[in-house]
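Re: the 480-residue chain
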Amino acid sequence: MASLRGRVSRLPLRIRLVAGFSLATFVVLLAAGVFVYWRIDYALDRGLDTELKQASRTLDPLIGADGTVTDRSAAEATGVAWQVLTPDGTVLDDGGPAGTRPLVSSRQLSRVGETAKTYNVGAFLPSSNEPYRVRVERSTTSPEHYLLVGVRRDHRDEALRELLLQLSLAGLGALVVTAFVGERLARAALKPVEQYRRRASAIAAGRADLRLDVPAQRDDEITRLGHTFNDMLSSLEEALDRERQFVSDASHELRTPVTLLTSRIQLALRRPRTQADHERILSELKVDLDRLALLADQLLQVGRVDSGSGAGSSDMVTVVGRTISQRRLADPLRAGDVEVSVPSEPLPVGVVDFELERILTNLLDNAATHGAPPFRVTVDEPNPAWARLAVSDGGAGMPHNLLTTATQRFARADEARARPGTGLGLSLVEALVSHASGELRLCYQGQHVSHGRPAPVECAHGPEMTVTVLLPTRQGHVPA
């Protein structure tokens, strides 16, 4: 069975569809033919049985105690073959075309009880010379004897054989027609699939700009599959473009610290150095290595977010309070630079705590690097479906032309390139917020730029640089 299934599965889909359609048609035709044959056979047999029953009623009173018929002329008037039999099958009397040879065996006689039995004598296929339908019952006038009456089945069998032939021919013709029509339909239905396959093969060979030709006037399963493939190809092309851009930007960003390290090492090797010179050079190398380590760590974080954000929830109030406390303990001299405003009640959101902590840390680091104190962190619930985390600073803000591209990887203003940083902080925040079905807003001097899923919450209108994170709450909103 397994080997047969394996061989069938290797056949072309069109052949399997036609075979399955033809098999189903064959089963339906066979069932319909059997039903029609059975009904006609039943109707014909019922007519013969009625004739046999009427003949039995006429003949039974004519049987004497010795098993012979008392009025032969009345018996012959029935027009049927009849026999009077002993239990061992011996013919005591007969009439009509029956003859002296018993039409039934002693075993068939033994099966006759209080009710009559009906038998077909002679084969249906191939046709018999003496086909009879007989009725056997105990004689009521002579209970030790059996009365057998029979009629020939020639016309009945001929009609059934003709019916069987006609049904076979009609069924075979219908099967051929349906197989042909099914093959044409399967070929027409699968033609777009073959076209899609050839086009996909060309795309796989390097023609990434190609798309599947989907008829605009149709809307069926095949065309919807084509639209889905085109959407998938567009998404893959966009992802490849982003990866190429990311690799290009990462190469560009890595080139500077690597070049500086190489230059410093080459200069250090040109002449002998004192211990103080080596310590100074090592300190300079450490700065560049720290920048490389920070960049590598940020790249790893971005890669992990791109591969999928963890599902879960956290309390925004708790996470913000814990993160601010840790930063104040790490840098007590600047503990007063951060002002915090949080509600007294918990505010659960659909982001795990370490990702929410990473969002806030990146926003505070970005504000500390490119902005100026005081830094304000505000947590509130503008409506039951959304939680808001806003970080603002008193610095020079962000140029208006940079607001729309600030979340791109390695995006930085020209004047910011002299300051520490990798240009990945806001990109990481935007990725985390988008994975949580939230929204990231950058606002400065009345200019507002949104990234991610829009939330029905009004923007802040303060003059300072403000980065707002809107996340769906666990109680009021389920991310789509």
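Residues 215-307 form a domain with the Helix Hairpins fold (CATH 1.10.287).
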